Predict the structure.
Amino acid sequence: MQMNRRQFFKVCSAGLGGSSIAMMGFSPNAALAEVRTFKLARATETRNICPYCSVSCGVLIYSTGDKSKNSQSEIIHIEGDPDNPVNRGTLCPKGAGLRDMVQSANRLKWPEVREPGSKEWKRISWNEAIERIAAHMKADRDKNFQAQNKDGVTINRWPTIGALVSSAASNEAGYLTVKTLRALGVTQLDTQARI
Amino acid sequence: MIRDPKDLKRYDASERANHWVVGISFILLALSGLAFFHPAFFPLTQLFGGGTWARILHPYIGVFMAFFFVLMFLRFKHLNKMTDADREWLGRAKEMMDGNDHNMPEQGKYNGGQKMMFWCMTLCMVLLTVSGIFIWRAQFSVPVDLARFGAVIHAAVAAIMIAMIMVHVYAAIWTKGTIRAMWYGTVTRAWAKQHHRAWYRQMTGK
Amino acid sequence: MALQSLDIKQRSATTTPSPQARQTIEIAKLIDVSACIGCKACQVACMEWNDVRDEVGNCHGVYDNPMDLTEKSWTVMRFSEIEEQGKLEWLIRKDGCMHCADPGCLKACPAPGAIIQYANGIVDFHQENCIGCGYCVSGCPFNVPRISKTDSKAYKCTLCSDRVAVNQAPACAKACPTGAIQFGSKEDMKDYAAKRITDLKERGYEKAGLYDPAGVGGTHVMYVLHHADKPDLYSGLPVNPSISPLVALWKGATKPLATLALAGVALGSLFHYVMKGPNEVSKEIEKEIEKEDAQ
Amino acid sequence: MTNHWVDIKNADLVFVMGGNPAEAHPCGFKWAIEAKKTRKAKLVVVDPRFNRTAAVADYYAPIRPGTDIAFFGGIINYLLSNDKIQHEYVKHYTNAAFLIDDGFKFQDGLFSGYDEAKRSYAKDTWKYQIGSDGYAKVDETLQDPRCVFQLMKQHYSRYAPETVQKICGTPKDAFLKVCEYIASTSAPNRTMSYLYALGLTEHSVGSQNIRCMAMIQLLLGNMGMAGGGINALRGHANVQGITDMCAYSQNLPGYLSAPNEGDKDRATYLEKRTPKALRPGQMNFPQNFPKWFTSLCKAWYGNAATKENDFAFDWLPKLGGATDTLAMFHAMFEGKLNGFICQGFNPLASVPNKKKVGDALAKLKYLVVIDPLATDTSEFWKPHGEFNEVDPTKIDTEVFRLPANLFAEHAGTFTNSGRVVQWRWKSADGPGESKEDAEILAALFLKLKAMYAKDGGALPEPILNLTWAYTQPAKPSPEELLREINGKALTDLIDPKDPTKVLFKAGEQLPSFGFLRDDGSTACGNWIYCGTWSQAGNNTAKRDNSDPSGLGQTLNWGYAWPVNRRILYNRASADLAGKPWDPQRTVMKWLGDKWGGNDIPDMAPTAKPEDYVMPFIMTPEGVGRLFSREIMADGPMPEHYEPFESPLDVNPMHPNNPKAKSNPAARVYKSDMEAFGTAKDFPYVATTYRLTEHFHYWTKQSQINAIMQPEQFVEIGEELAKEKGIKAGDKIKVRSNRGFIKGVAVVTKRIKSLEIDGKKVHTVGIPIHYGFKGATKPGFLTNTLTPFVGDANVHTPEYKAFLINIEKV
């Protein structure tokens, strides 16, 4: 009978193993061999778009709960949206790690102010923040607003303020930002597209 | 069994304690080691609180045993020097095993077989300790090939060692009147005269 | 989740066969190194899906990071710059468990059910059964499993058995932006690889080929290599991997032979006793001693 | 992108120069790999570094940073002198045949009209010869010495392969090999997709770099074709959308040129911006400017914008002087700004010369940072060891930090690089008290409005009258905003051809900008987005990804501007008779009565081929421009100029004219000019870039990305490392004339020294991404090193080529 090394070992070990178990009089409990439960089974799926580069990959965001009234949604996983014709479910290392961006330890949670000369941040309420910023803005606008240039042309410009608008904001937020800033007379505004 | 004041002192208390410390350690090591060696023995890990505990304990028991084995080695090594009589005894060991010890040469405290066993165990113990270190991942990290080599050596030597201990134990059972030497430290003069006549003479002057 | 959501082919430290009646598709992951851009999306997706986060390390003067597989990095990209006949190539290989058909880790593992090979080819570690001995590390021809410093359990790529169990591709394959990681039946993967190899040959890589090493019975993670004749160019991919002969000896011959030997000694002793009887002190000597005492 | 991401798969050649899509846009780059896999396409990369795109390329050629125009000029020369152009296309669809003013000249590195004192050109000679009929004169034989074709041929004949090698350091045979690949796509049925990103734009000649490639693609007939095009791979998820919304000074939403001090009233303003056709019968689409602009005014000021008040023209602020990022920070540095709003932007990290930016911020009275993350900018005043050495007690800026939401926490649209506008749905609430950007803006604006209503102040009208008809004024919803952006009829719109027919009732959403009017009867926040939310509903939320043509057009997925068109200038994909150049990849064809095919026609739908309406409808001449007339600040044809910090003493093209060493029309502030270093002190060329593991200065805040690439490094070639005694893993210090950073040395074979004009030049690569705030190892901001100078046209800073020195720490 021809037998290679592996078969020989198999026969040896199977035969002996069986006999040894009988000899020992007891056998190991069947250890469960189940895979980790599929964690998205009942998670809530929302379609969104990756906020990084301009490929605008479709993403599926999975969160806990079912959006019922008393449950807070917590994002547990983000992966590519296979329906999206551009990324077709794939994601790059940035996109695949989006969950850690959403849950970054450096997310801001409340308004803060650092007062002139101070070494620290101070937590303030939204009301206080908006009131203090608006007071600064109005005082500056009223003081420095230019209605006309030296040639008498109406220019209605607020020259002492500048703004940078986020390229990661949605079109809607961006539009609203432009609309309000222009209404205030801001001409010094720019966005990441420049740089 | 009646204890007789004239029984011969074979082991003092500390020697006996040393022996049993090593012996118990060995039993624990064998039981846990076998569990890792062959699936059939894996349930033995239950004796140690499960597989993980067995894995954690085994090497520490090993170190413990190695330490006490060294003590034992130092105690007994001078008694285990091989002599011509031992060699002759070994040459005729088959007669002995057949239960026919009439023509065996006179033996001192230990016969040739016991001395042989002593040295073999010492060798095994060294091999087991060194190879055990190679595969003790929780404490040491060695190149993978060394670990693989260590695993083979550890397994093979351990099997040999277990077999030897089985022979050692069997010999003690088979030779009636022996085990008490490790319990109370004494043997009967008859036992000594029968099995270790040279030692008997030395002890009794007869 | 049902116990047998994936059918089991073999379990570690188990001497009897697992149920074998059901036949499921053998799956494989194919890593097309020629399409890999080393972006590490697979590394990120793996960590994200499996809820592990490695340490934030340091730069060591190379693009690789983390530098090696760990209990929390189940896959890493390995970068190597080579220059052959004046042509610079940046070979980037995704390293991780190969899911061998003949897994050395499983062979070496002493803990029943700590390593499972599913019928679809996935070799999975079950940490709850793992005793932390590290034998799998010795058993693996690819140097993949890692023992955690904190819980002393062995970890490695699961091929996302949880995803595959519900018929989803592993997280790395799903994420891979360029399709360098493909996932499907092993059959399909081989067909796909053949197409890629033809394309590579047309582009001048005459030695392009599939890495599916026979020494471990084939793998369920395969590579398409431009230089299949020199796998070691790819950060030391083994040229001809197989389970180490030492491991084969240890978990092969030694196991039955030693068990047999021990049984032999035990039985031999028993029968020796039965057949030869105990070795008792002879009556004569006892009498001699009595005589001495009487004197 | 003139084409779109998926379309890259239709290319025969994917050419990447000035970009690194494998690292910066991996998921878009998949389509280049797809082209390789399915069309046997070739991928060619030209870059200073052998990067991860090069790792999968068929061919790679090195180049010295900042010398792209020399390389492109060489390609143009190759194509023209080897007759590798798409003749029919060039003749009809470009301005090759147009005759140029006799006064136009190029001499000694300068075009006619240069004013050295102003560093700018008078461009009155950079124009077409106009015939008696009022149209531009052409010579269809292309033989007239004043025709664009001949001028171009002459201009680029100076860029011989040897010259390219001398300037760029690219070995001649490597350069010629690249030319061969590119020339192969001059066949009418072969296309090249050209991919670029900031590697092309971030130079003092950035705009001209891109012009070069546009010219090459026109010569090859690759514009408008499936698998062709000029494809800018843009940076942020919504940088396209925010650019479309024109969150920058020069334009109003929809690229409507914003009024400036020269526009005294609406009539003068409109007149200047409403061009006349330069050739007979052309669509000259920008002639509709008044409709778009008036509809915008109505969207913003509603009933308050009336014919009588010039549709509130005066309420729009008028531009005066430069207002780009560099200009703004320069003004701030000079103490001319009091307040600054920084929304989702980290200028301390991302604007050149960090020291200057930090000093500028310290001169503000107040700074408002609106961001989801604790940015470096928000803590410019806070000491962070050697990474940010400041004394907070001496900084009087009041800094507010307002927590904004991230993408997952609000709904709305993003526009991708391929102009596809896609809707997103909200997944979870933001952390703590964070709010949406729109809500924060609304809160601030409504507060100011209330203050102006109560107390009055400087010109309150535009504030008080700004339309704000949102259901919850404090929380304008993205749905309402998108409807406003799309636009609607304000009164019933009567069909001009049939007065009995009402096209749209008052209040109805409009389906396309074709219905916008200049009489105040329509409102539209951004004309190019008209159609995103028509009466049929939210078209950006469409999710039918079917692709009947197989070209990847997916016309029912989201909504691409304009009018859901996926490939711009697609009329050019067919010949004069309307037959596709490549029937296998039909984008557009004449169906006998109208245009049709696999896209929305970029052409009047029923304009017959024999009407000779040319494909480039956004130009008054109807054709693509090889000669850009007066549109560019620094010349109608690109010319090589050295970066402002160059390892060479002269421009090898013009060794005798120091004025033509670097871009003569680029704006440089005096103090910044003084901060330039010279090759004597800073002998190595540095270039900055992104790594695939990180996204700008965001992902340093993300644990998982920090793990992937935890620490600042600097890439140097093996030869330089040996010279300097640096080993991989050593810490090195990189100095420019503006500061220093430290990083770990990555010693590589992938950056080689180049032989430039007889001189050995080493390039050093410096990734951005690191800073003092984040999960990565704290580090320096790379832009500590970069020069504060930008492109002559759009002032994009020169991050990609400057001088440094290195030493082992």
About this structure: Chain B has a mean pLDDT of 92. The two ends of chain B are 25 Å apart (CA to CA). Chain B touches chain C through 50 residues (CB under 8 Å). Chain B has one domain: 11-204.
